[in-house]
């Protein structure tokens, strides 16, 4: 695994940075805008944005002059291919996603619209069909992401984890 792939995986193993990636999917935002939206300090937002930028997960989409200084605007491009992950790196990312899902659940428990938990036996062909449908769904949602609080939009959550399981002995 390359140093860049390792940096990318470490960057996604933090719940706040996962939130930032989601936020920056729909629009380019400055550190100040990210800080306001997430309720964190500007310094904290800047630090985490630098980690994401250094890992190659976000791009600088432009700069704007604000009060005598230059503010960078960052954006996440979801469609990029993901690096290969080791088992340990996946474990860290799943832990971060789980922590973030619990935060979202606690804040919005009464609004759950669908929940699926399944441990099933299906044919490999069915599994591949389902995985492709999940990928298309995720891509469609990310492609339609809007700037936070855009009129006519609603804030949603979609967390998907699909994996083959070992057979019980």
Automatic annotation (TrEMBL):
CDD domains to which the protein is assigned, alphabetical: HTH_ARSR
UniProt KW keywords: DNA-binding, Transcription, Transcription regulation
Domain HTH arsR-type: residue ranges: 7-103
Xref: Pfam families: HTH_20
Xref: SUPFAM superfamilies: Winged helix' DNA-binding domain (SSF46785)
Gene3D superfamilies: Winged helix-like DNA-binding domain superfamily/Winged helix DNA-binding domain
Classification via PANTHER family: TRANSCRIPTIONAL REGULATOR, ARSR FAMILY, TRANSCRIPTIONAL REPRESSOR SDPR
Protein name per UniProt: HTH arsR-type domain-containing protein
Species name: Nocardioides panacisoli
